[in-house]
Amino acid sequence: MTSDAVFSVHAVSKTFGARRALDKVSLTVRPGEMVALIGPSGSGKSTLLRSLTGFNVIDPDEGRIEVFGEPMQARGKVSGEVRHLRTRVGFIFQQFNLVGRLTLYANVALGMLGRIGFWRGFLGQWPDEEKTAVMAALQRVGVADYAAQKASTLSGGQQQRGAIARALVQKAEVVIADEPVASLDPVAARRVMELLSDLNREDGLSVVVTLHQVDYAMRYCPRIVALKAGKVVYDGPSVGLDRAALVDIYGPEIQEVFWEGEAR
Known about the structure:
single chain, six-stranded mixed β-sheet, 25% strand, five-stranded antiparallel β-sheet, 11 helices
């Protein structure tokens, strides 16, 4: 099966108990796009994002999900192709998901496991060309000087940039980032968002990122998809997300965040 879409979500619904997490959500992400998923807490954006990776079987009540034209999940089952598909998708977690006792270099090198095999990676038998790729990735994200340090000794921003380097070493074709700046200070958060934007523009990587910071979504992501109560309520250019749309998504309190200065 072939497709020019990175992700295709077709009328996916999911209920947890009495709560409708996703309600007939449809979404297509094309190669080279940088898309922000926004919405209030509980809107379904994290459920949707994680369903794209196959990490969780979300057991949708209905609908299907395709990654690069291949079924990732359908009717509660993960596709048999999921391992191959995962090698093409890099995932950036809010809490970095680095192994604290390992060096930053070793953590980034783990991105190669899908190509060289678990045991070679476990024993540190990295091919020379892959060792070069690891250092190049660390240099690209600006943390090469910390390659020999244990991940647990690094700041949150440094660890998150290491996680991005791991996706580069993995040779991912798309990066999914779940609240990648939620745990970071404003300066580190800006650096991470600028790095993701740079990888999208210069390397052509597709990026899908969930964000609570609407201002970051509007600044760095040309396209925004907003969810509310499990439904897609906005899907379009970030420049089209005006005050009325934001109030509809988040409620009138959002005005205190964005426009309180205008009222003074």
